[in-house]
Design a protein that fits this description.
Blueprint: H1 10-16, H2 20-23, H3 38-49, E1 54-61, E2 67-78, E3 84-93, H4 95-131, H5 137-166, E4 174-176, H6 178-195, E5 199-203, E6 211-213, H7 215-231, E7 238-248, E8 251-260, H8 281-286, H9 294-304, E9 308-314, E10 318-325
Parallel strand pairs: 5-7
Antiparallel strand pairs: 1-2, 2-3, 4-6, 7-8, 8-10, 9-10
Helix pairs in contact: 4-5, 5-9, 6-7, 7-9
Amino acid sequence: LKGTIQYINPATSALTGYSLEEALGQTPRLWKSGVHPPEFYQAMWRTILAGRVWRGEVVNRRKDGTLYDAALTITPLRDEQGNLVGFVGIQNDITHRKEVERLKDQFISNVSHELRTPLTNLKLYLTLLERGQPEKQRYYLTTLQREAERLHYLVENLLSLSRLDLGEAEISRTPTDVNVLVRMLVEDREAMAADRSLTLEADLAEDLPYALVDRPMIEQVLTNLLTNAMNYTPGGGKIVVRTAKREDEGRSWVTISIEDTGVGIPPDERPYIFDRFYRGEAARRSGVPGTGLGLAICKEIVDRHGGRITVESEEGKGSTFTVWLVPAWS
């Protein structure tokens, strides 16, 4: 038995990209991905040549070169005399399921890592508070407070993402004056910006239409974006929060842009900055505390408002994050 393909159904053709005519006379090596070692296929062949059913998961390759995960069952066929005459293979595309499993495992790994650091520091400084040098107790307490806040921030972000993922975060959109929202946000953080030797300004458009938003959610988005701008803009820098009415692709938008003169984002990092737990080189190098969840939450919230969030950046010169929101009235 050489395993020559004698028939594939339309579903297999759609999955692999090969037509029946292209597959006839070929062997299943047609879909071989190169992911599995030779021992994997040797064990498979030993099983089916012995007349037993083989079940397992494989990574196969489509005609266009892309890979997919499949749950594969190979059943031996026998003639009336019981002789082995062929095999029937059934494969189900499980690529989405495997990707969900991979993301879940990555999520658990990342959460474990992010929780471990503040918890370790809390345990350490609680011990130092009890047994360390009395004159350093204020320093110990300051560190404990910082790590407790870091842990609180992580848990809150995780809960926010969980509520969004499960659809439990109800969006109650009302017409909102984003100029009022931005003005409040800037005024609340002017003192903090001054302490860091930063200039923080609001540039508000006149006659700006109201936006149709869930105000607490959009406040969370803007808070995350402004916090990032302040964290990654060196002393002496400037941050401007602008509002505007824009036309794009035949639609009207209310936009809020947070523009900074910070470190900027390298081009190779920009495609990933909205991924969960992603932290760029600047974050790792500077030691700025964070979870890598803030921008992911921003994007999720804005997407659910029917808007979008974009970024323009030049390394070493700064970044501009723009939130595009639907006007309350056309």
